[in-house]
Specification:
The N terminus is likely disordered. A hairpin with a 2-residue loop joins strand 36 and strand 37. By secondary structure, the chain is mainly β. The longest helix is centred in the first third of the chain and has 23 residues.
Length: 994
């Protein structure tokens, strides 16, 4: 009897221990697996074996691309490629026995083969997406040692093992090749009943999906939903349910709720759900990265066994009437097409998470609201960073610049599927990009089906570049030109492709860069020729003006300007990039900041012209350039402003009002330099002062000034954290000397190492401890070691007073299985505040609809000139006077005609416009990025005639050449015969607001 009681008690205790082992084990499910790796460049096949001796290999902490030190020293085609091995010896945590063990790689370039204790686990080959494997059958329990080995191959021509097909996006024009393991790695420990990971291609699982529905923005309400895929690997059926808790940004618990119970059989996978209506919500918005912590707790027989924590935000979107709505407010897309590598000199893409925040928040500070990552899916670190800083993202899958077929198309759909599953909880992603070039309608249907299957509630639009007449795409937009739509939003996926080195102020400042010099007769990386690349080689003055001029075409057709509108666009690129180039340097200089994120004049130009959701919220101005010239210099001064009138002063003497062009550009001709202060004041239409700015002449170079930009909370002593050290040449009063080009010597001592910066010169000064300031300023990187202490930086230069600065590093958890995640304790940026409740634009004019068109040639095609389809057009098809007459829906007081004519960037058409036979306009149409607006005195009538008076004139006023060397004909048919036949793609008529 006693024995039977003992056994009953024994088995009862075993059952309790078994349940509590799942309940009371470490609450941590996800570990940082970045520390303690070994690296060997070259193929050592024996390295897969657990007993291989890797003591002579290089010690590295991840993320670490084995060729990252070449970033910006070599051009994209010359980056080293080949095989490299990474190895790591580790123990599982003490409480890991009887748990599932998964490894998650955020990405390996291009291919990664994973071995555990000598056993091949699996291979991943697309070079972009996260993947993971179940290590449970192969790992040894604590305290035994395990060895993970990863063979990587970043060959540009790498072929998929199963099909022999290459990957379209592994392309040396666009996708900088930082090889090995350039992204984070994590270890996951889970019980035998667990919520799966969102790693579909290798694990076949979809993870946890958090989304909101039933939004009531005005009353701050929404229904929060959680759907989590649960797998039962026990040998018995169980009853499970989800318990969800929601914490706000300050960590306050605002809600808990429980979903329905479900039975799950052994080895069965099932989706569990829970939902609750919440109020007093803060909605994620532009520049307002308000995030909630949603914890999905798995209950088995009402006992908690596992928790999955997700940081996410809630926002409402809508895509209609040619516009994008965020939280019930229209937002015009203003931003940058940035390389997904988002790289930095000497370290490539492998930077700490805080530095991603710093870079991405600068886009917000320039008043951008959108980043369109180019060609491939960004890594999770950048995606989560955009969540925190409040930056909308357009997320591609993978592409170069063409639709493809067969296996290469399947690779693209698989990547899109995996990327959506992995990133669907990130609120900053609002667009999914299916191609960097138009794709077939059938392919667009496939992409839409993937979105609707795996992210049906995410509030995202899926589309592709162009797709102007697609019935399936949910957004579109060309690369270089402006589009308008009354249906889905059209925004430019790239515009203003010009380049300019930060070193060059203008033609009057050393080193006296004359506009257009450098890179003519340039050979592109793909071998194509650009006969004249001068249009891509600006100084800061002209680069800033070009950016503003190119934006004007989009602003002119913004929401509020009619039924057909443009929804904005993204400037290529934000930071100078280690990709294809057209100038003397071997990297792309189109950035609004340089490679070390030092702003150029372009940055401040965008800060002014993008200050608002659609219309300008706060008038502002920026004086282009500096005020430190030699005596006798006379030059034109440009002020960029959203004011109506701008007045310029030199030492309080007024030079009058500026000549306004393209709305935001104000030019003051032949201003003579006089040391002192140059000041600009902006006024509104009533003459009221609304903005002001000034620049002061600096004195002669006197000394060096050092400052730092560091991780919030301090630099971590983890042998991987970076700090930016800024060096300025200043006068005796501490003012930066904007024309200084002094060479600076750096000495780094203590608990850190010198990494370096970038400047114009041999090897772009990469890795050099001597480099010059440019425009009086530059930056270098220093890197922590794994011992906490002080990093001392000394900067010296001939004839300048030296300076020194100290960075204190902080001890952190650098165990091989670490509790400290890379982005831990990084705060959100909320400076712009919640979505305003006020209207985002004012209506500027009234569109008058066309009900019919009459012409004596190609009458059947006449409707194509006003059908809201920019891939169709009408043109006069016979000799004689080309003319078409439009009948309006009503008699209207017309004062504007808006036209899109074929050849818009290179052809000027001499036309006459009459309203009810009264001439209201006669002259040449201007060049544009697509649409032109012709103004005249308001004239009442119901019929409008447009006729071509003579042959169109050619012009190279807007010189746009693709990297391939192709010159886009901008709507001109292949034969070019439409030029003399008034080719109208779209026409619109407007009257003033009554």
């Amino acid at each position: 009897m006693k024995n039977s009681r003992f056994y009953i008690l024994f088995f009862f205790l075993i059952a309790v221990v078994s349940v509590n082992a799942q309940k009371n084990g470490s609450d941590r499910e996800k570990y940082n697996f970045n520390y303690g790796w070994k690296l060997n460049i070259g193929d050592v096949e024996e390295a897969k074996q657990a007993d291989f001796n890797d003591k002579k290999w290089k010690d590295v902490n991840l993320p670490y691309a084995w060729n990252q030190s070449e970033a910006f020293r070599l051009d994209i085609t010359q980056l080293s490629t080949g095989i490299a091995w990474y190895r790591k010896t580790f123990q599982l945590p003490k409480d890991s026995n009887n748990k599932k063990v998964f490894v998650e790689f955020e990405g390996v370039r291009q291919m990664g083969e994973i071995y555990i204790n000598g056993t091949f686990i699996g291979r991943h080959e697309n070079g972009v997406m996260a993947f993971g494997f179940d290590l449970t059958p192969y790992v040894k329990p604590y305290p035994q040692q395990n060895v993970i080995a990863v063979k990587t191959d970043n060959d540009w021509k790498y072929k998929e093992k199963s099909s022999g097909s290459g990957f379209q996006w592994n392309n040396n024009n666009f996708n900088a090749n930082y090889g090995g393991i350039p992204k984070n790695v994590f270890l996951h420990l889970k019980p035998k009943v667990y919520q799966t990971l969102p790693l579909y291609s290798t694990l076949g699982t979809t993870g946890t999906y958090v989304y909101a529905t039933n939004f009531d923005i005005a009353n701050k309400k929404a229904v929060v939903n959680v759907a989590s895929q649960v797998k039962n690997e026990l040998s018995k059926s169980i009853t499970t349910q989800l318990k969800v808790s929601v914490q706000d940004r300050e960590g306050k618990l605002i809600a808990t709720f429980v979903g329905d119970s479900f039975a799950i059989a052994p080895n069965e996978t099932k989706d569990l759900t829970a939902m609750k209506a919440l109020d007093n919500l803060n909605f994620w918005s532009w520049g307002y990265g308000y995030l909630y912590t949603v914890t999905s707790e798995l209950l088995v027989d009402t006992k908690s066994v596992e928790k999955v924590t997700i940081q996410t935000g809630f926002r409402k979107t809508k895509f209609e009437k040619g516009m994008v709505y965020l939280n019930d407010r229209v937002i015009m897309m203003k931003g940058y097409a940035q390389r997904t590598s988002n790289e930095w000199p000497s370290v490539g893409m492998s930077v700490p998470a805080w530095l991603s925040d710093y870079s991405n928040s600068l886009m917000i500070k320039s008043n951008a609201n959108l980043v369109r990552w180019m060609h491939v899916t960004p890594w999770k670190q950048d995606i989560e960073s955009c969540d925190r800083v409040g930056l909308i993202q357009a997320m591609p899958a993978g592409d170069s610049e063409a639709d493809v077929q067969g296996r290469r198309w399947e690779q693209r759909t698989e990547l899109m599927r995996d990327a959506i599953i992995y990133n669907r909880n990130n609120p900053s992603i609002i667009f999914y990009e299916s191609g960097n070039e138009s794709i077939s309608e059938d392919h667009m249907k496939e992409m839409l089906a993937i979105k609707n299957t795996f992210d049906p509630q995410g509030g995202r639009a899926i589309g592709s570049r162009e797709m102007l007449d697609s019935k399936v795409a949910e957004y579109g937009g060309e690369m270089l030109y402006i589009n308008k739509s009354a249906r889905i939003p059209f925004w430019a996926t790239e515009y203003s492709r010009d380049e300019g080195l930060r070193k060059y102020w203008d033609e009057f400042t050393p080193p006296f860069h004359k506009e257009g010099t450098g890179g003519t007769a340039h050979t592109n990386v793909n071998g194509s020729k650009v006969a004249d690349a001068s249009a891509y080689n600006h100084n800061q003055d002209t680069h800033a003006k070009e950016d503003v001029a190119r934006w004007y075409d989009y602003w002119e057709m913004r929401p509020g300007t009619g039924e057909r509108v443009n929804s904005g666009g993204v400037n290529i690129i934000f930071s100078d990039s280690n990709t294809h180039y057209r100038g003397q340097e071997n990297y792309r200089r189109s950035g609004e900041v340089d490679a070390m994120r030092i702003p150029k004049d372009n940055f401040y130009a965008h800060q002014v012209i993008w200050n608002g959701w659609v219309d300008t919220d706060t008038p502002d101005l920026h004086i282009v350039g500096h005020w430190n010239y030699e005596n006798g210099v006379t030059k034109d001064i440009t002020v960029i402003s959203t004011a109506d009138v701008v007045e310029l002063f030199v030492n309080n003497e007024s030079l009058g009002k500026g000549i306004q062009d393209k709305r935001f550009l104000f030019t003051f001709k032949k201003v003579s330099f006089k040391p002192g202060i140059i000041k600009a004041i902006g006024y509104d239409k009533t003459g009221k002062k609304v903005c002001e700015n000034q620049i002061q002449t600096a004195g002669k170079p006197f000394g060096i000034k050092l400052s730092t930009i560091e991780r919030p909370g301090g630099t971590l002593a983890n042998a991987n954290d970076l700090a930016l050290v800024q060096v300025e040449v200043v006068d005796e009063k501490g003012n930066r000397c904007p024309t200084a080009l002094n060479e600076i010597n750096f000495d780094v001592q203590g608990q850190g190492t010198f990494i370096g910066g970038i400047a114009q010169g041999p090897d772009n000064y990469i890795g050099s401890k001597k480099l010059p300031v440019e425009c009086g300023v530059n930056r270098i990187f220093v890197k922590s070691i794994d011992i906490a202490g002080n990093i001392k930086i000394l900067a010296t230069s001939d004839s300048l007073k030296s300076d020194a600065i100290t960075i204190k590093t902080i001890k952190t958890d650098i165990e091989k299985v670490s509790n400290t995640l890379p982005s831990e304790n990084l705060s959100s940026f909320t400076e712009k505040g919640p979505t305003p409740a006020t209207p985002s634009f004012s209506k500027t004019r009234t569109a008058v609809a066309i009900i019919a068109a009459n012409t004596d040639s190609n009458q059947a095609d006449a409707v194509k000139s006003y059908d809201d389809n920019e891939l169709t057009q009408w043109s006069y098809g016979k000799t004689g006077k080309a003319m078409i007459e439009y009948e309006l829906e009503r008699e209207a007081n017309i004062n504007q005609v808006v036209l899109k004519l074929a050849g818009w960037r290179s052809k000027k058409y001499p036309i006459r416009i009459s309203i009810d036979n009264k001439k209201v306009f006669e002259g040449f149409t201007p060049l544009s990025l697509g649409y032109v607006t012709l103004d005249f005195e308001p004239t009442k009538g119901k019929k409008v005639q447009i006729e071509l008076m003579a042959t169109a004139k050619d012009s190279d006023g807007i010189n746009l050449v693709e990297i391939t060397g192709k010159v886009d004909q901008a709507g001109i048919n292949k034969e070019g015969k439409t030029i003399e036949q008034l080719p109208i793609i779209e026409v619109e008529f407007y009257e003033p607001i009554r």
